[in-house]
Amino acid sequence: MEVKTLKDIDLSQNPVIAQMSLNNHEQILFCNDNATGLKAIIAIHNTVLGPSLGGTRMWNYNNEMEALNDVLRLSRGMTYKSSVAGLNLGGGKAVIIGDAKKIKNEALLRRFGKFVDSLGGKYITAEDVAMTSRDMEIIKMETDHVSGLPENMGGSGDPSPVTAYGVYVSMKASAKEVWGSDSLHSKKVLVQGIGHVGEVLVSHLTKEGAKVYINDINEERLASLAAKYNAEVVKADKMFDLDIDIYAPCALGATVNDDTLSKLKCKIICGAANNQLANEKVHGEAVGKAGILYAPDFVVNAGGIINVFYELEGYNRERAMSHAEKIYDTTFNIIQVAKKEGIPTYVAANRIAEQRIESIARINAVL
Ligand code: NAD
User: Fold this and answer.
1) What pLDDT was estimated at residue 366?
2) Are residues 136 and 285 both part of a single domain?
3) Domain that holds residue 47
4) Which parts of the chain sit beneath pLDDT 70?
5) 235 belongs to the catalytic site
6) Model confidence pTM above 0.85
7) Residue 4, pLDDT score
8) Mutate to test the pocket of ligand 1, among 82, 127, 163, 310 (most ligand atoms within 8 A of CB)
9) pLDDT in the model for residue 3
10) In principle, which of 88, 170, 209, 340 could form an S-S bond with 185, CB 3.0–4.6 Å?
11) Is residue 367 part of a domain?
12) Which residue out of 39, 93, 140, 188 is catalytically annotated?
């Protein structure tokens, strides 16, 4: 399904309700509290598969409409991510408007927690940009509908090892398609961003005998991980000129763009970063034309949401890891559908997500 934009709205309609109907959002909760200065929006996109789950982002938006657009876009993204990962979760997201450094305090977070609680579990929150595990602890004082908590609070802890494992198996499934074998032995892989996820990915890759190149803005970390994993450091300005087999973006979004696509020599793009395609429609097609197999980011990096899902059931890392392993089959299936239908891989992933939601909605409708 194509994302519709503001241009498609009939302006004689209420702009908020019209926005909701564009991509079929179920519910929005606008939260305001003058005493604490809280202004937040909780968007529930779809709850067919289960309660909506997605992090709370705190951001100093230029205006409320920008915040609304962001929360609508992000909550919809969560619906697709959870659906394609085979989780019984819907999509939701929350944004708190304002500069975290200036206005975030206990009272504001607890007030926000009360709003989350008022939804009775239809929305479950977690950490996102400018929110910490301590903030989640505070929100949890007012509601049980919080996930992604640290281990010392009975939570699932750092999701990065699960995410990294998902990236690794997704890469193997992509390799099977491109080279007929899922072995990554002697494949040249560039990992951009060797943070929480990137480092664990590098460790899986080196264990399998891949030739790993690493890039990061943190020079100290680069030097220490290069020595630890016998990886080769590559400077940012040389990175996209390298002769490599696989590019794994694990730092930031929009690195698959006109500029990088004109240089990249790899056969596969598969990494953890969110929103890798600078323009989904344009670059989702352009990668294919460049002869590169793009493993859709929201399929590849689903380990994070998988980890949080298992926290809801009483956390068990083995179960989370074994679910993350299924990202191999999911990736391979998406590639086959894309090939058969002659569509970009991200479109195939969206279709599979929508089909699952539609089929479960039909079951739910049966009395
Ligand atoms: P992180 O902050 O631990 O690591 C990011 C790394 O990227 C850091 O080492 C940082 O120095 C580096 N970096 C930042 N800007 C860079 C640049 N311009 N060039 C090169 N390196 C740069 O983050 P993480 O938890 O490892 O997550 C990595 C990516 O995966 C993020 O985009 C995140 O949103 C996404 N993601 C993470 C998870 C998870 O479980 N942690 C789940 C889903 C998606």
Assistant:
1) 83
2) no
3) 9-81+90-150
4) 1-11, 367
5) no
6) yes
7) 67
8) 163
9) 66
10) 209
11) no
12) 93
